[in-house]
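Please go through the protein record below and see whether the fold suits the sequence. Record follows.
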Amino acid sequence: MNIGSSILQAIGNTSLVRLTHVVPDGCAKVFVKLEWENPTGSMKDRSALAMISSAEEDGRLKPGDTIVEYTGGSTGISLALICVAKGYRLQIITSDAFSQDKLNQMSAFGAELFMVPSEGGLTTRKLILDMITAARKFSQKPNTYWTDQLNNLDSIAGYYPLAEEIWSQTGGKIDAFVHSVGTGASLRGVATALKSYNPGVKIIAVEPAESAVLSGGEPGPHKIEGIGIGYTPPLWEPSLVDEIIAVSTDDAKAMARRLARDEGLFAGTSSGANVVAAIKAAEQLRPDASIVTLMVDSGLKYLSTDVYKR
């Protein structure tokens, strides 16, 4: 019997399934990796474990320390789980711009929340910078470790196993990988590992159309949680990316709802954006080509939002 000694051993090895209803006929095949199968319902479990484990190994994080982070929810939830498993106190800088479901889940794991007000519940460059400023102040307290996700290189390695899983599950038959950009760590980690197997794998980044800064546009408010911070994230590596596709908030929300109704896949808005972009890419590739994207997190994290709330 394969019995884990801790919840941390349940991270990873998520399922890969093919979309059968939302992809038009004549397009390439689109597969989605069900990252909500991770313990907190998000791919961020992978990066949170990598950031904390690496800091423990080199002594930046010591027993009894308090961990601090700014986050819109999923990273905070994942850090909260890791802190429960490893015995750390966690302080989260967050905002009313993010779903109440995520805030409740962080609190359920014992995280202490400190709120930064948003502009009308929208994600903006100013909000992200205000959250970072607040986290920096918290990090100056004694016995405190700031994971600082936007600048933390350790998080990239947390996604190498995700790429290994994709390569194994597809038997190496993957023509393109499509994924949205928040910190940039997950796209960079997966792209690095996939291109080590096959440099020809096309890497497609996804960003909000309302804040398409990676495409050279102006920053703006949007409501695709977890991505589009309003400026180029420090972990962004353009040399790995072959194309950037911008997706509007409305299209991302509509696809999230459609995935639930037509595919039985209950996901959040960034997952909806991923699929919108993957379909655009699939329309340009031959029918026997294969595209992989991610179901970043579960729709359960968005029940209180206008994505699903009736």
